[in-house]
């Protein structure tokens, strides 16, 4: 790192002295010392964000900070877990204190909101890359898995898929504000929803690679099932409906990534709260079939995802 400010000084300034529930020893020693809650199981997840690959190179540091934690919290939400502790590994091209202060602002704003404590990490000099490891807790035996979907289950969402993908395209076109740009820059992990789904959802996943792709993972993990989706039931918003062409909107909804919304299946015996939207049903026949408002089967699924329609499981 730079001659003036060394790694230890930056760690001391930005990361030490943090503590929270269950933290016996936070950043500063060779390792963190944590006290898990009796009766709870640990859930661990990790994601790396590479500059230029997982976020635009000109994304503000505060948004990068928020996002790097949000993608991990979304995985905890998808497991039905309570966020507890996290580790942060930063690879930075230079010891830029202004950048780091801004990164921390976004990162810790979300950490406080979600009730997760940073307990350690690492810092190296290199191309901009951020890795977060997050640990959560879930009551024993209550974790939400991808593998429990059954034919007849309702496939549900509680949010608008496609906004983040549209927002990224807006960003690339030079827009720097608005609902779609915000959806991309500041994903809101659905932790409350994940908690509520414990003991209720038969399967759950967070949409990071696109709705069809992630639904495909649930169906594959649940023993090679299929699904029928109705486009007319797909949640939308004024912002998404006012963006692009109908085909672009559909592509964003079905195949856009980065939403970090929970996609879950619920046995048909449950009535759904009004905020949840059933977009289709799990079926025994392999493949994902999408029908339009007139009940016509879509044959032009967004490019790259047409193999789902044929029941080709090569994506699993
Ligand atoms: P070591 O060489 O023993 O791994 P480091 O110098 O990498 O120690 O880190 C010293 C302490 O600072 C450790 O407790 C580590 O967890 C913490 N730390 C380092 N980088 C970060 C970071 N980015 N965020 C939080 N804590 C960090
Ligand atoms: Mg180290």
Tell me what you see in this structure.
- The chain is an alpha+beta fold and 316 residues long.
- The protein has 2 domains: 7-139, PurM-like, N-terminal domain (60s Ribosomal Protein L30, Chain: A); 154-291, PurM-like C-terminal domain (Phosphoribosyl-aminoimidazole Synthetase, Chain A, domain 2).
- Helix content is 31%, strand content 24%.
- The chain has helices spanning 7-14, 61-78, 97-114, 163-172, 179-185, 191-197, 211-221, 238-241, 246-255, 306-309; strands at residues 23-25, 33-34, 40-50, 82-92, 117-125, 129-139, 154-157, 203-206, 226-230, 262-266, 277-283, 287-291.
- Strands 8-10-7-11-9-12 form a 6-stranded mixed sheet, with helices on both faces. A 4-stranded mixed sheet has the order 3-6-4-5, covered by helices on one side.
- A hairpin with a 7-residue loop joins strand 1 and strand 2 (33-34).
- Helix 2 (61-78) runs parallel beside helix 3 (97-114), helix 2 runs parallel beside helix 6 and helix 4 (163-172) crosses helix 5.
- The longest helix has 18 residues, at 61-78.
- The structure holds adenosine-5'-diphosphate (ADP) and magnesium ion.
- The site of adenosine-5'-diphosphate has 13 residues, from strand 4 and strand 5.
């Amino acid at each position: 790192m730079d001659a003036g400010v060394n790694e230890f000084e930056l760690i001391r300034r930005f990361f030490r002295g943090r503590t929270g529930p269950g933290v016996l020893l936070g950043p500063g020693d060779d390792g963190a010392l944590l006290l898990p809650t009796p009766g709870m199981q640990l859930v661990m997840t990790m994601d790396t964000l590479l500059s230029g690959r997982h976020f635009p190179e000109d994304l503000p540091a505060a948004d990068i900070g928020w996002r790097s934690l949000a993608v991990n919290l979304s995985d905890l939400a998808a497991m039905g877990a309570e966020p507890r502790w996290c580790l942060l590994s930063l690879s930075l091209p230079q010891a830029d204190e202004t950048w780091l202060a801004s990164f921390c602002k976004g990162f810790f704003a979300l950490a406080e909101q979600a009730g997760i404590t940073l307990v350690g990490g690492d810092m190296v000099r290199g191309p901009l890359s951020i890795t977060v490891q997050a640990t959560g807790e879930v009551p024993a035996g209550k974790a939400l898995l991808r593998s429990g979907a059954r034919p007849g289950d309702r496939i549900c969402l509680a949010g608008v898929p496609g906004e983040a993908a549209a927002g990224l395209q807006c960003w690339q076109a030079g827009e720097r504000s608005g609902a779609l740009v915000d959806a991309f820059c500041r994903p809101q992990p659905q932790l409350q929803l994940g908690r509520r789904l414990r003991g209720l959802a038969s399967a759950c996943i967070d949409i990071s690679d696109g709705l069809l792709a992630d639904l495909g993972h649930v169906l594959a993990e649940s023993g090679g099932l299929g699904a029928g989706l109705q486009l007319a039931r797909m949640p939308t918003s004024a912002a998404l409906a006012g963006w692009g062409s109908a085909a672009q909107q559909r592509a964003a909804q079905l195949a856009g990534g980065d939403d970090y919304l929970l996609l879950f299946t619920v046995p048909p015996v449950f009535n759904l709260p009004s905020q949840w939207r059933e977009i289709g049903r799990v079926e025994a026949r392999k493949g994902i079939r999408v029908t339009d408002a007139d009940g016509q089967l879509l044959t032009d699924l967004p490019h790259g995802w047409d193999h789902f329609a044929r029941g080709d499981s090569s994506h699993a």
